[in-house]
Amino acid sequence: MANDPISQFQISKLIPIEIGGLDFSFTNSAAFMVATVAAAGAFLYLTTSSRGLVPGRLQSISEMAYEFIASMLRDSAGSKGMHFFPLVFSLFMFVLVANLLGMVPYFFTVTSHIIVTFALAMLVIGTVIIYGFAKHGLGFLKLFVPSGVPAAVLPLVVLIEVVSFLSRPVSLSVRLFANMLAGHITLKVFAGFVASMGALGAAGAAGAVLPLAMVIALTGLEFLVAFLQAYVFAILTCMYLNDAVHPGGH
């Protein structure tokens, strides 16, 4: 990899494909998205295919992940929200595994590209809108009209609610993208300090101890952020789906 900390996010074509003047090339980003789905699917299949009455370590991890998302969804959207469990669980596992794969040296972090995170966010918001209107019809619009608001300020409140709703996919996608991008750039910068100072001889090697310690600390922090960002994405998804299930706030 180049010393440029941005080089790790560059898209490269693995299999050039052009149809009708449009570029459908299979890229390193697409390859790691496939790898993410394959890794998550393989882990869940292997850990649950031979379920035991007394679960082993890996089976326990799968069951804990299942109960973690199920409990989160029930608390946020109620029992009716469990209809969306496959969606929320899939999003959580995809984001988590993609973040963890991105921690492997020379691997690609797909969640560091805003087009990927925005697509995931639009999937969530699109589900909210489609289900909300399909289930409640025009009653879904009660989401933008909070109860108990005086008529004098109701237009302003409705405008604020609409803008807030439209900003959700932006905030949901930018939060994940920005955290992964900033964390990996910081890691690459400090790792570059270690390599540069180590090349200066004994004195440089001694001076490289501090940035090396920072790299180790930041690596541990990035693993924590990888999980936290998957959790934040999932919990916000649950909260948004609650608006589709209960647009009146009941």
Task: Give a brief outline of the structure.
Key component of the proton channel; it plays a direct role in the translocation of protons across the membrane. Helix 3 (85-101) runs antiparallel to helix 7 (209-245). The chain has 250 residues and is mainly α.
Task: Record the SSE blueprint.
Elements (H helix, E strand, L loop, with lengths): L12 E3 L2 E2 L2 E2 L2 E2 H21 L8 H21 L7 H17 L12 H23 L17 H45 L3 H6 L1 H37 L5
Antiparallel strand pairs: 1-4, 2-3
Features:
250 residues, two-stranded antiparallel sheet, transport, ion transport, 4% strand, two-stranded antiparallel ribbon, ATP synthesis, mainly alpha
Give structural notes.
It contains seven helices and four strands; from the N terminus they run ββββααααααα. With 250 residues, the chain is mostly helical. It has one domain. The strands form two sheets. Strands 1-4 form a two-stranded antiparallel sheet. The longest helix is centred in the last third of the chain and has 45 residues. The N and C termini lie far apart (53 Å). The mean pLDDT is 88.
Mean pLDDT: 88
Structural class: mainly alpha
Supply Rg.
22 Å
Strand numbers in spatial order across the main sheet: 1-4
The major β-sheet equals: 2 strands, antiparallel
What percent of residues adopt helix (DSSP H or I)?
Answer: 55-70%
Separation of termini?
A: 53 Å
Overall form:
globular
Proportion of residues in β-strands: under 5%
Helix and strand element order? EEEEHHHHHHH
Number of separate domains: 1
Beta strand count: 4
